[in-house]
Specification:
The protein is about 45% helix and about 10% strand. The mean pLDDT is about 90. The chain has helices spanning about 10-20, 30-35, 40-50, 70-80, 120-135; strands spanning about 55-60, 65, 90, 100, 115. It folds into two domains: about 5-80, Orthogonal Bundle (Arc Repressor Mutant, subunit A); about 90-135, no CATH class. The strands form two sheets. Strands 4-3-5 form a three-stranded antiparallel beta sheet. Strands 1-2 form a two-stranded antiparallel sheet. The protein is an alpha+beta fold. Strand 1 and strand 2 (about 65) form a beta hairpin. The structure holds zinc ion.
Length: about 140
């Protein structure tokens, strides 16, 4: 039985994008690549791996869609990546997802990360984000 631990980070992102952005699909490499910020070869590889694991299936001309099992795991991945509302100073400017740890792009939608100015650790987070943007981290 395939579980979340059997998935690579890239496979998780593609699975999650299919689930959250494309409503389970179908979606092809061209549509998925800009969402997950990976090049098409990597998306294609992730999709093939997901298919081998029985989590997506091919739909002629349309791309891949989630299988029932794929949907189940996507839900688990979503929970795994989610943080409670009041946690984490880093916020996606597009989808509003919060992160405790510094990142430049949202793992889900690829949106720019901003710092929540009202967060108690805003000053430090701002500084870290600034340094990361300059490539110092
Ligand atoms: Zn986002």
């Amino acid at each position: 039985m395939v579980s979340v631990e059997d998935l690579t980070y890239r496979e998780k992102l593609v699975l999650l994008a299919l689930y959250e952005v494309f409503d389970g699909g179908p979606a092809g490499v061209k549509k998925l690549a800009p969402v997950v910020h990976m090049d098409k070869t990597k998306v294609s590889r992730a999709l093939n791996a997901l298919e081998e694991k029985g989590l997506v299936e091919f739909e002629h001309m349309e791309g891949r869609r989630l299988t029932e099992k794929g949907e189940e795991l996507a839900e688990e991945v979503a929970t795994e990546m989610e943080l409670p509302k009041d946690e984490g100073p880093y916020v996606c400017s597009d989808c509003g997802r919060r992160y405790k740890h510094l990142r430049l792009k949202c793992a889900v939608c690829g949106g720019e990360i901003e710092v929540d100015k009202d967060h108690p650790k805003a000053a430090k987070a701002e500084w870290n984000l600034e340094r990361a943007r300059m490539g110092l981290l």
